[in-house]
Amino acid sequence: MSVDFIARIIGMVVFFVGGIYLGTYLGRSAGEETVLWALVFGLVGALMGLVVTPFITTRPIRTFRKQASQLSVRTMVAGLVGLIVGLIIAALLAFPLSLLPQPFSQILPFLGAVLFGYLSVTLFVLRQNDIMNVFGQRFSAGSGGASAPAAQDNLSVLLDTSVIIDGRILDIARTGFIAGPMLVPSFVLNELQHIADSSDGLRRQRGRRGLDILNRLQKDPNISFRIVDLDVEGVRAVDDKLVILAKQLRSQVLTNDYNLNRVAELQGVGVLNINELANAVKAVFLPGEQMEVNVIQEGKESGQGVGYLDDGTMVVVEEGKEYIDKVIPVTVTKVLQTAAGRMIFARPDIGEYRERAVE
Q1: What integer is the mean pLDDT of 35-53?
Q2: What is the reported pLDDT for 147?
Q3: Domain with 325 in it: what CATH number?
Q4: 33 to 45, 100, 288: CA distances (angstroms)
Q5: Are 306 and 315 in contact (CB under 8 A)?
Q6: Which of 1, 123, 242, 295 could bridge across to 305 with cysteines, CB 3.0–4.6 Å?
Q7: Helices (H), the chain
Q8: What is the pTM of this model?
Q9: Mean pLDDT of the chain
Q10: In this structure, are 222 and 339 located in the same domain?
Q11: Could you tell me the pLDDT band of residue 67, with boundaries at 50, 70 and 90?
Q12: How far apart are CA 183 and CA 157, in angstroms?
């Protein structure tokens, strides 16, 4: 039995009784039979109570809980401090405003409390990061500067489903580049388990790979990792839950999902993208430098050959089609940085290749 159903029953009874009293009063005022009036208004009241009650009871409460669950502790503290400051300012202005002639002496103090309370809450919430940083710097200065680095070291990182399935997080965590603890919320674990139980063979394999990565992360004593029983009420999408939870915990999100990356950035959540990290640590080649590449296939353009470096960087070799399945020296002619990664264009060093062939 749901809460909405119970509220509808209670509202139906209350509105039915209220309708009877209203019908009786109106019937007496009209000088007619009160029983018929009471019955009609009672039935109308019962119908209204059955329909309207959730919209004035459970629905507003549910909406308030949903909005409150999406607010971070920092935002709530900033709003509370702003409300206190606004009410103090309104109290200081209440006395001179009460000396004004009627009706201003009664209306303006109340309007001042509402206006200054609203403006102060809005201002403190909008500038919450600056205000908290000021207090944090003063606190760290008073304690010898030890709290700020500690807070940064303890900055937690929330893992997304895609980055767990990807698997590279295990090697990255072992290098020690992620200083804070890595957290996996229960709803991410549930989604991973759902993928592992999928009827599709590929999805099932990916889900089991993700569960295996989590198991290895949990067993490694040198990695700060734990699964937390945290959820966000009123939100179904896992990505939305992850962003809201990151805002509440003041955490970063570790992912390689492009859409989640952009959504989190738009909402002011820090993002660590493994694909961007992989592109950043790839070897840098400048035009004119030489290297060796194994040409493995044809390119899109006529006569082109394509090879790959050890880090996965694509190398397009002009006039390299005739060297397929051969390792040849090439000279870099151009380097392009695209959204998919770095691409290198090169041309074969024919003279050096022929000298090697003769030897």
Answers
A1: 89
A2: 43
A3: 2.40.50.140
A4: 19, 55, 104
A5: yes
A6: 295
A7: 3-30, 34-56, 58-69, 73-98, 104-126, 128-142, 147-153, 161-166, 168-175, 186-196, 201-219, 238-249, 258-266, 274-280, 350-358
A8: 0.52
A9: 82
A10: no
A11: confident
A12: 6
> Does the N-terminal peptide bond of residue 287 adopt cis geometry, omega within 30 degrees of 0?
no
Q: What average pLDDT does range 26-47 have in this prediction?
A: 86
Residue, of 310 and 136, whose pLDDT is higher: 310
- Closest to 251 measured CA to CA, from 181, 325, 174, 161: 181
Range of the domain at 310: 290-358
pLDDT tier at 88, thresholds 50, 70, 90 = very high
Here the tokens at position 240 are 């939305």
Position 240 scores a pLDDT of: 87
Residue 4 has pLDDT above 50, yes or no: yes
Q: Calculate mean pLDDT across residues 62-74.
A: 73
The reply to whether 125 falls in a domain is no
**Residues paired with 185 in a beta bridge:** 228
User: Is residue 176 in a domain?
Assistant: yes
Domain termination site, one of 236, 258, 279: 279
Q: Is residue 301 part of a domain?
A: yes
Contact between residue 315 and residue 346 where contact means Cβ atoms under 8 Å apart: yes
Q: How many CA atoms lie within 13 A of 260 on its CB side?
A: 26
Residue 158 neighbours by CB under 8 Å, 6+ apart? 183, 184, 185, 188, 242, 245, 246, 249, 251, 252, 253, 254
**Which domain CATH number covers 214?**
3.40.50.1010
Amino acid at site 271: V
Number of domains in the chain: 3
Could you please report the per-residue DSSP string of 10-71? Answer: HHHHHHHHHHHHHHHHHHHHHTS-HHHHHHHHHHHHHHHHHHHHHHHTHHHHHHHHHHHHTS
Residues 259, 173 share a domain: yes
Give a yes or no: residue 143 inside a domain: no
